[in-house]
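User: Need the bound-state model for dinuclear copper ion:
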Amino acid sequence: MNIINAVTIVCFVLTNAVLIYFVIRYRKRSDKDQTSSIAHSTWIEVTWTIIPTIVFFTLFAIGLVGFRQMRAAAAGIREINVYGTQWSWDFYYPANLRTDKTKTSQLKSPTNELYLEDGVPVKFIIKATDVLHSFFVPAFRVKEDAVPNMYTYMTLTPQISEEQKKNGFGVYDIFCAEYCGRDHSRMLGKVTILPSAAFKAKMLELEKEESNVSPAVGAKIYESNCKSCHSIDGSKIVGPSFKGLWGKNEAIESGESIARDENYVRESILQPGAKIAKGYQNLMPPQTLTDSQISSMIEYLKTLK
Ligand code: CUA
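Assistant: Bound-state model below.
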């Protein structure tokens, strides 16, 4: 980046200096001024071909070194599956991070939350579930397209500096860098780099929460998946507030009155368009939650009186 900046600045200054000089030197002094007849100049053309060629191939070579680092994956590298969905990110971790070795399914962190272990190389295996997205972590200087019908990948070694460790930093933004529809700009996530012990504790927490049904787990899901559209204080954002919602009979778009019960909540999480609350639009993307996560969500809704 610094090299490209330097080359760009030098070229910009030189070009404009010459431009200003020519404007003054060759300005039209009288009506009799005539432009001389100019034929081509071989040496100028050769020069302006060879110099940029050398400059661009040098930039290419430097870029290639960085690109190869992003693509090189050592055998046994930790693989994290990344799924882009309108308009959120989901992350799945290898089953060998489980404490319970009898289970072979991948571990999932809450939507839009990625956890990495300091100093441990990872390979992201990236896919989109609907339209084109692009997985972009500006702080890491990496970006890779998420495509519906193929897997893409990139590798990196996350590191937090000693200074950041002292301050407890190591949290960075995840963006979607491919225009993917209405909420493209809100397709945001956070990546947290954790020291080894904290990372293992986090994985254990995810593992426990999978089978742990409680309002507390539901509250966490609310924070990561629902908060931007559903309030818990009664105020209307994009969707209905969750406050006092549980157990009520309320109208849906067809005019029918429907109980806000287990089945309604489950259906509305998995197929949000099935029954739209009256007065609202069909805007919610389907959520990827497991059965026990949905149960936790229900337990949480019950607490929002
Ligand atoms: Cu996903 Cu833009």
